[in-house]
């Protein structure tokens, strides 16, 4: 619902379709959980997009699929999204985002990991990451 969050996802339409369908899959038969009822009720009232997608009753699990993100400091990144089960838990999942090795996306993530980028350096970092992509 937050426009700033939407701006981080160049593929907002397909991302929301996937996430809503995945929410249905993740909940499974636990639709009576008060937290789930509260969340879906809030989203249904506040978001016409969520309301339309939720009404489709689509169930889809997330696969190891690429996702594009628009990072405010290094620009656009394409990362692989993997969903991993955590052993010994009751359905707890961990989501891992990772770049292809040796890619410009890996360089951009390394730049983020190596420096505390203040707001004033955001455009320089984005320029550096863009230059790496063009090589």
- Indicate the structural class: alpha+beta
Strand order in the largest sheet: 1-2-3
Q: In sequence order, what are the helices and strands, one letter per element?
A: HHHHEEEHH
How many DSSP H or I helices? 6
**Total beta strand runs:** 3
- As a percent range, the share of helical residues equals 40-55%
**Oligomerization category of the chains in this entry:** single chain
What is the beta-strand fraction?
A: 15-25%
Low-pLDDT ranges? none
Rounded to an integer in angstroms, the radius of gyration calculated over CA atoms is 18 Å
End-to-end gap: 36 Å
Shape: globular
Mean pLDDT metric: 83
User: Biggest β-sheet, characterized?
Assistant: 3 strands, antiparallel
Question: Which tags fit this structure?
Answer:
135 residues, alpha+beta, 6 helices, 49% helix, globular
Descriptive report:
- There is one protein chain.
- With 135 residues, this protein is of the alpha+beta class.
- The chain is 49% helix and 18% strand.
- The protein is built from six helices and three strands, in the order ααααβββαα.
- It has a three-stranded antiparallel beta sheet with strand order 1-2-3.
- The protein is globular, with a radius of gyration of 18 Å.
- The mean pLDDT is 83.
């Amino acid at each position: 619902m937050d426009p700033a969050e939407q701006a981080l996802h160049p593929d907002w339409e397909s991302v929301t379709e996937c996430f809503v369908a995945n929410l249905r899959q993740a909940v499974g038969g636990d639709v009576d959980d008060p937290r789930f009822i509260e969340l879906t009720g809030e989203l249904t009232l506040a978001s016409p997009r969520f309301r339309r997608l939720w009404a489709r009753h689509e169930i889809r699990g997330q696969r190891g699929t690429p996702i594009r993100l628009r990072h405010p400091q290094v620009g656009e990144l394409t990362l692989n999204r993997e969903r991993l089960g955590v052993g010994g838990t009751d359905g707890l999942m961990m989501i891992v985002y990772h770049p292809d090795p040796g890619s410009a996306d890996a360089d951009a993530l390394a730049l983020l990991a190596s420096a505390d980028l203040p707001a004033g350096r955001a455009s320089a970092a984005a320029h550096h990451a863009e230059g790496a992509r063009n090589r």
